[in-house]
């Protein structure tokens, strides 16, 4: 099991959502986050100027079975990518266990919706 | 140390909170999240119909010492479980270090409230 | 790569933000969280009284290359520490991969802003 965290443009959320559902991906969760950084653009054109204001993004979190990691990452990249600075990031982190609260099932089976 | 992330019904939050405090669990953090998925129900009764609207849940995050993992998971399941579809999930992930900002303490001791 | 999660006082956010930018740290994300716990203070002065109301904090999340972990932790502690109860916590967790959505770059290079 892996956790995939994707920080994407708000304008791309609906496309990414559809792509994840079409890719037959299990549930995902999301919430609003803000980002702060030294903007690349400002550095190139104006030297060492910090952009200290924030930008708004959506954080998508989903835990998937190992077999679904690459499919999920590709679905997100396909829809979230514009090619312009600021498309966001995806992080992949380890998950040791997952529990479905309704049944108490643990491990991969807890992530799997039996069809 | 482990991080426990529990996505639960909003209606169960107060019960889970009380259970965690009674179980003598250290601090926890929480915030609102939204969930999107193919609902199990819809698939069974109406075929491949996606429910593309979101549902509201609360994400509880707490980092606990290894000795407290199962106690925490059981406290959450006990109170968050209704037996109906949609009770939520718990994820367990590894934590390499924890720091108490006030003292700079690191490791298990930083999670422990000396009584 | 490591993920650093810092739960800090809202009043310290601007100082921590400046310190991270000055420390030449890559992007970070943040959002509001609430915390619940048995307050240490209440226990000492009034016995076993639970403070069941929440406190507001900001969660900062940043994924950094291994070489930047300690620098980041120190920048946060330096600015977020008041010495009073309630300064918050920092958690360090493993990250297996990072992807820059714009380019598809993976690994450390995806975290690095070429100057
Ligand atoms: N290392 C990081 N840790 C936490 N959040 C990050 C990190 N990098 C980026 N983010 C989040 O992702 C958002 C978008 O980042 P952005 O797309 O500009 O990344 P980038 O690496 O600079 O890519 P690009 O070169 O295409 O601009 C930021 O606003 C921030 O919220
Ligand atoms: N794999 C996942 N990754 C991220 N979030 C998830 C995942 N699975 C569930 N969630 C979150 O948990 C919420 C509740 O999920 P839900 O309880 O329906 O899970 P379930 O496995 O379908 O269980 P049930 O069969 O009891 O319905 C979702 O709205 C979503 O926010
Ligand atoms: N183990 C934990 N898991 C998740 N969140 C935590 C944890 N510990 C603390 N927090 C979050 O950090 C916030 C501040 O915690 P706090 O600074 O009181 O920690 P503390 O260890 O009690 O330190 P102090 O002894 O200085 O008060 C809490 O409101 C909560 O949101
Ligand atoms: Mg950028
Ligand atoms: Mg369900
Ligand atoms: Mg405290």
From TrEMBL, chains A, B, C:
This is Nitrogen regulatory protein P-II 1. InterPro entries: N-reg_PII, N-reg_PII-like_a/b, N-reg_PII/ATP_PRibTrfase_C, N-reg_PII_CS. GO terms for molecular function: ATP binding; enzyme regulator activity. GO terms for cellular component: cytosol. Belongs to the P(II) protein family. PROSITE patterns: PII_GLNB_CTER, PII_GLNB_DOM. SUPFAM superfamilies: GlnB-like. GO terms for biological process: regulation of nitrogen utilization. It comes from the Bacteria. The modification O-UMP-tyrosine is found at residue 50. Keywords: Phosphoprotein. Transmembrane segments: none annotated.
């Amino acid at each position: 099991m892996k956790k995939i965290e994707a920080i994407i443009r708000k304008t791309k959320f609906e496309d990414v959502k559809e792509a994840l559902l079409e890719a037959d991906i299990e549930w995902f969760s999301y919430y609003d986050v803000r980002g702060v950084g030294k903007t690349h653009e400002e550095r190139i054109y104006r030297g060492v100027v910090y952009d200290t204001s924030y930008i708004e993004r959506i954080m998508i979190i989903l835990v998937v079975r190992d077999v679904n990691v690459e499919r999920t990452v590709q679905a997100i990249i396909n829809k979230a990518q514009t090619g312009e600075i600021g498309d966001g990031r995806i992080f992949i982190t380890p998950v040791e266990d997952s529990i479905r609260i309704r049944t108490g099932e643990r491990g991969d089976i807890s992530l799997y919706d039996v069809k």
